[in-house]
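Q: What would this complex look like in 3D?
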Amino acid sequence: MKKIAVLGYGVVGSGVVELFYRNQKKIEANTGTKLEIGYILDLREFPDDSYQDRVVHDIQVILDDPEVGYVAESMGGVNPAFDFVRRCLEAGKSVATSNKQLVAEKGDILLQTAKAHHVNFFFEASVGGAIPIIRPLHTCLAANDISSIAGILNGTTNFILEKMFCDNMRFANALALAQKLGYAEKDPSADVDGGDACRKICILSSLVFGKHVYPDQVYTKGLRNVTLEDVQLAQRLGGAVKLIGAVKRLDDGRILPTVMPMIVMEDSLLSHVNGVFNAVMVWGDGVDKTMFYGRGAGKLPTASAVLGDLIDAVKQTDTDLSQSWEPAEADADFVAPIDAFSAPRCYRTSPCGSGVFARIAAETGVELQNAAEDGCMISCCDQKTAEAFKQKLGQEGVTILSRIPVLVD
Amino acid sequence: MKKIAVLGYGVVGSGVVELFYRNQKKIEANTGTKLEIGYILDLREFPDDSYQDRVVHDIQVILDDPEVGYVAESMGGVNPAFDFVRRCLEAGKSVATSNKQLVAEKGDILLQTAKAHHVNFFFEASVGGAIPIIRPLHTCLAANDISSIAGILNGTTNFILEKMFCDNMRFANALALAQKLGYAEKDPSADVDGGDACRKICILSSLVFGKHVYPDQVYTKGLRNVTLEDVQLAQRLGGAVKLIGAVKRLDDGRILPTVMPMIVMEDSLLSHVNGVFNAVMVWGDGVDKTMFYGRGAGKLPTASAVLGDLIDAVKQTDTDLSQSWEPAEADADFVAPIDAFSAPRCYRTSPCGSGVFARIAAETGVELQNAAEDGCMISCCDQKTAEAFKQKLGQEGVTILSRIPVLVD
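A: Here is my prediction, written as structure tokens for the whole assembly.
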């Protein structure tokens, strides 16, 4: 018999305990190991809880019990989660976490610690909640040279954008509705300013390209400046605005991770991902493209991913080296700045007619892909060309009201 | 150094060799093992091929070489693939196959053989081509009680249905176009009659529910009777006709695997899966629902899945018992007959008006969900109720032109 310890008995931690006992038989058959929830670490007491006898307040109890082989970390935040997880790994216990901040900021250190102690540090739940994406990336797609990833990595903002798109709600009203329904926090900045999606694209970038990418290396632009008029123009031009976390390998070998509102055209499956769901599209030289979709958050969905990791940890005999990456320091020039960004663009403008757009596109050396009275889409171009197009429009007396890049699927 | 042998040097086999050498470094880093394509088994000679020096004609050469640890089988068909794969497993070599017929008909035997010899028999490429689905099901989703699966498992028929839906083509014309473009065979029966999707749903059902499901246990209805008028009615009622391979666990514990045209409503992501792409939706008690999408066939996509399996095989130290199932014989009553099927239905009829549909729905005890002049959708009901609804319509002088079930997402 081996014990599992759960660190943090909030929404995710209690979900892990609940789903474990619901499917304990299946989990034990899958791993060939008798398992039990041995401890639940939390500062609080839970006098009415069925598992209150497992609650402890001191991490040392868990560290000292050699029967604890596996730890689920769902405390959130970097402190004290980082310290606790590191000590668990050093004590020879594999850890599965749902804590994206921890992985995005300290993943490289914890992966090295796990390796040094022949255990595993898994984090399937840290990106896309229930969606199997971390493990497929480094197992099923292991024979691919992956060139880029783009995903809807935050359910709250996706819900808000759907309300703007389908129900013509303004951003503020859609956000208020998301808060009322419990999808958004009272302080919604981590979602709407892109910080949450940023952490997730850091994790995906690090895993796929092999070196740690930190949140402050990612160009991150949230949703606050996206207006209903932007969403409606995109719709008229055949697309939907989505908050896209993406990373691309450039021709010079550097990578460019970004979080920003982008227009996804309706022939891309990503444009049809609605509500609080997440989806991640992956491009590789073998698979072409493949997409993973599911709930990005929630008690049992997240618990499903944490438990999937624990099950894998039980089956491993040593560190799984494919789910790892190097520290960032070794290569300071690994992450490109936003100047290197190129994409098709959509401009919303004062009404001027498509003739003006066509002429200025020709002058700037880009293709006019689509136009309305009050906006247009131009073909893929770099930042400098996009700026030139904008300036020429200005010289014609056209006011630029917004500029949103278009995702190339 | 370990050798890989490739059985069958057709489209998939040559893709395996090509993708292996393209990403050899990455594959070796991932597995921590030096690897080489040692042999290519084929009856033919390939005098102009870069790897013609690896071509052999006798399986015994491969069986006798102790350096061959891993085998990619891409011959297709049951004979002689079954015999060759079994002997490879008996000789202690793990096998990855793209051969869905082999897995659907002989999977249980080969899985037992692999187990007896402490090696692996993997088949990610047998369902959904490039899409990671087999491994996520038994690893990432291992903590879930999976209740049902529904997917677009055949790209050829999905292409045909898209042409009917988007371009108003008749079935015969869309099929002819698919043949012209190389998506459909000259004899298209395996695709359009559902046999290909049937094998795939057998494999998914066996894996998820733990006992072998044979093709002849699956109710299989192809696409030949789906008319343009059916597709257009579905569109007017807010859905798209898709060929759906599905399996569901019934309340009595039996499972019901089916392949049939179904209407998928536009609020389901599955309805937006177009072209030759495949997608598999999975429902579990932890994840709620999650979907996997990608190319269902093709040289490099399929090779990507085969190589992903081989990489996993290299990393395994023994048989992975979670990717396995029991022979079917133990429980003859495991698979329910089609009589147990229940779903909402769509009827296409002679024009009669929605008043008639509403009245007869009320008389039959079902809900009218949606109606047009010449058709309607009724709420979920069993086969008997659906038959009663149809008969009552007939008694009113209404001609039933088609009946298509609706997928509940």
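A: To summarize the key features: The two ends of chain B are 48 Å apart (CA to CA). Residues 256 and 336 of chain B are 5 Å apart (CA to CA).
Q: Very helpful, thank you.
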